[in-house]
Each structure stands twice: as structure tokens, then as C-alpha cells.
Amino acid sequence: MSNFQSIADRFEIEALRGSFTDAVMMRNYDRLASLFTEDGVVRIPHINAQAKSRQEIRAGVERMQGLWGCFVQTTHPGTIQLLGDTAIGRAYVSELMHGRDGSSELNYAVYHDRYRRTEDGWKFAERVNAGQIPRYHTACVLGAPGELRRKRRCRPTRRATKSQRQAPT
């Protein structure tokens, strides 16, 4: 593989990860599902969720997003290891969620990804959110800017152990 092709592949995979976040933020579930291969899989072990097709992915994300009045996800660059027409990588995400029930959460996690080159470009073959549990998770009370909330302070509710931080096999 030429150096130029390697650069182009990395750029397209990074754009794929950005498109995932954009589709989630815009609540465009059809677009989000199209970012996966037909047999694509999403696993979120810490909430015991799994989707094994574009249809299941679309339905699962729409159902989860229905819980949130506000959801902000930011994807940060991670690693990409090219393996010909497949690749593996990690992407780091931060998520701020405000539930329709008044709850709030702040989550920092890692996606462990498998990618596959298709006729339509690079797609997700699998996304696994952090293996076991998020790296850092907290339940916060969000209020208006400048409002001091004393009822609950934002503190971690879960921390990953060293063995949980390892990439899933």
C-alpha cells in the first residue's frame, strides 16, 4: 500500500468517526446506520446492549436518544492500525447527557473499533464502547449557568480497573 493510500485511508476513517458523532448529534438515525456494514455490530457491555445489524443499530440508537432531552458527544482522535482492507482503532469520546427525567450524566469512554473498506468507502464493522464500563462516569445535576447546586456534586460513580482498560479481545 502506498504512503498516499495510507494517508487517504486514515483520513477517511477519521471522517467516519466524525460522521458517527454528527449523525448522533443531529439524531439522523438512517445516516448513522449507513455508517456500518450490513452485518455491523455495536456492543455496549456496561449497559448490556448489543445491536447486530443496521436495522438494530438504528432502532437501538433512536431508543437510547429518546431518553435524553439533551445529548452532546465529542469524538477525539485515537489510534488507527491499517490492515489492508480492514483496520482497527480506538476513538475517545466525551458525552454530556441530560435526561427527560431530570437526570444528568457526564461520560468519558473509549470506542474499540473494527473498520472495513467497502465499495462505498470505509464503514464500521464493529464498535465496542470501552469493553466493560466507561473510563469515567458521573451523575451530575445540571442547572442554569452560574447556579450553584449543592444537592449532588459531580463525582465519579464508576472507574475502570486496570484489567477493564484493556482492549476487548
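(ticket continues) Second input and output from the same batch:
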Amino acid sequence: MVETSFDGSELFARVARELAEQPDLWHTTRRLVELATELTGCTVAALWSLGSGQHANLQAASDPHAGRVLSRILHDIDEGPAHAVLLSRNVVLIPDAEQETRFPRYLAALAESGLGLRSALGYSLLVADQQFGAMLLYSAKPGYFTDEIIGIGSVLADHAAVALHAAASVENASHLKQALLSNRRIGMAIGILMALHRLDEQQAFDLLRVASQHTHVKLRDVAEDVILTGAIPTWPVRRPDGPTARPDGND
């Protein structure tokens, strides 16, 4: 059932508050599809992104089963409302799938899927000129998306774009911070090897890299061990004649 007991300002405030409370990008996408079904009363809500080869990739769906079925359809058929929204960046409305003349292969597959979806509405999620995907709303009822519901969906789409932009920025910053921290620790380990074992920078880095490859341990973890012990990283080396030796030449 569509919630219409609050005015536009209350809608904006509620959506903004709900999305701002999410801790990361994964939770933001899940809450977005939940809000979409709560606020519009649609049968299924889904978020899509444009992947390599201009394929539509599913990011989240309010109904996991329906999401899997829709994803399978779009994996084989590069057409339909989600694909159209991602490429055109325009709002796409299908009032009745049985009367629609666009997307014939997609609609045939949808009719055979058993989902019983009859109408769809899609929004591009844009911040400035950057697209953060598409939000698609699907209903089992033909003609479901009235002007009122389209307006509510538009408000949600605007907030969804901003929320996804913010969540992605935080996630990217976190990854960058971790990468910088790892690089610092690796640099510290290289410096320790250079100072204690009279190696040049390339020799020290090569020791870390080769130890990481041979032990299947991440480079930053090998570096942490060097920082703690000051020792040259070692790994078992198999001589051609059989016995195992260490890279420092000691048996």
C-alpha cells in the first residue's frame, strides 16, 4: 500500500534520514529497494548498474527470487526497461507489458518467467553527470504507476542517487586509506631490510614479493613480519637434487 499520509517535505526528510543511517554501500542498496516497495507499493524494486559490454547487472532486489529471474533474463537479452534507463538515462515507463511494443524479446521472456509482472517504471540515478545505476519498480498490476506514484518514485530516485554517491565515496576512501596504509608498511619493511641487511631498494622489494608468491601470503602480511622481526623473509626452496634449502643458503 502506498504511503500518502505525509507531504513532500516529510517524504524528503524520511528518505534522507533512512538512507543516511546506513553504514555502507551494501546496506544502502538494500535499504533503497526496501524503501521503494514501502513507499510506492510496487511488487518488486531493483537496482541495476551498467557492466562491461553494456550489460545490466543486478545490485539489489527487494525480492531475491524475482531479482535472480530478472537478472537471468537480462543476462541473455540486452533490452528491457532497466537496460533502456541505463543507456538513455531517461525515465522509462511500461504501463502494461501485454500492450507494450518495445522490448519484444525481453517481454516474451518476462511473460514466460512466471513472475506475473505487468508494469514497470525506471529511473536513472544521476548526480551531476555521473550515473550510479538505475532504479526499477515492477508491479503485478497493469497501469499501476499513476502520476502520484511516479512523483514519489522520482523523489526516492533523487535521494537514492545522492545516497549511493555518498556511500561509494566513503567506500572508495576506505579502500584508498587501506591501500596507503599497506604501502607505508611495505615501504617500512623495505627500509628495514635495506638498513639491516645491506640491500638496495629493488633487492629488498624483490625479497618481499618473491616470499609473498612462494608462501601464498599477502605482500603486506610479509611486510608486517619483517617489521616485527627485522629478519629476511624466508620460504622453502627445492634444490634440483632434492633437499630443501632456505633463500639465504642455509640448510
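Agent notes: The beta strands are 44-50, 56-61, 92-94, 119-127, 130-139, 237-238, 244-245. The chain has two domains: 8-172, 199-245. Closing as not reproducible unless the customer responds.
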